[in-house]
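quick one: magnesium ion bound model?
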Amino acid sequence: MFIVCDNLVKIYKVATLEVVALQGLDLQIAAGEMMALVGPSGSGKSTLMNILGGLDAPTAGRVYVGDYNLLQMSGREQVLYRRKMVGFVWQQTARNLLPYLTAQENVELPMALNHVASRERRERSKMLLESVGLSDRLEHHPNRLSGGEQQRVAIAVALANKPQLLLADEPTGEVDSEAAKAIFEAMRNLNEEMGVTIVVVTHDYTVASRVDRVVGFRDGRTSTEVLRRRGEDGGAITEEEFAILDRAGRLQLPQPYIETLEMKDRVKLRLRDDHIGVYPDRELEVRHEHAAGHKGEAE
Ligand code: ADP
Ligand code: MG
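yep, here:
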């Protein structure tokens, strides 16, 4: 596995208050995957992104990216990790680019800081800007680009030094849906062309159709996962939604299911041959009596 998060905990202390941003998060991401994190505001998505980016350290747990153990990096390793392993794209378009440099110069800058020769800088920046669909915008300054174009330049900047991991925290948060589509297409291209692993946070559930896997966050943990798989003969793409069973055996039931069956506080569990039944507390006995006469299950 390329990324392994194991029981990650992050607690922010603000004055006398403690905020638990991640509470025992488990997540694994394979090399070359393009996946999305979705979830309500405050559910811990950015906290995880900052940890994966080497910008923040977890309070407890383990996290590995490639050969790096992010909890045991020396200061020097941390600098190398940030410079070589990860590229970051932020939501605020203005935070990603330098306003007084052209698109191409913005992409060249991180390479210059890494002492890449100028000829290679020019070639690679051009290639990257082509990959994100901006070959006709090389000489433009950010203020002459749309928000969506700026974000695509930002993706090229983030990949300048060939990181294995691209992290994008709500890169489409400030652009319209057409531009959002182009941003996701650009990331998809780069993912396929360069094999870069991509983790993208988004509010937009429609992008789910553009990634392989969507992981839902809730209260500092993953709670659901949608997988898209192509049929064996390369046929139709099927989508399947899963709930996440954590290492302690905890499971989050979807709110609509809970409401439909008016479940509250306690539920009864029944182990069957090939599944587990979850019953509302007071109804179990009644349902069982009904089911006794039939062959099938009552849930
Ligand atoms: P998301 O990106 O899913 O909206 P965040 O990871 O930003 O969620 O935040 C998770 C929780 O941690 C929230 O309750 C948030 O208020 C809190 N939090 C995030 N960053 C800090 C910080 N630097 N200091 C204190 N609390 C923070
Ligand atoms: Mg966030």
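Residues 177-194 form the longest helix (18 residues).
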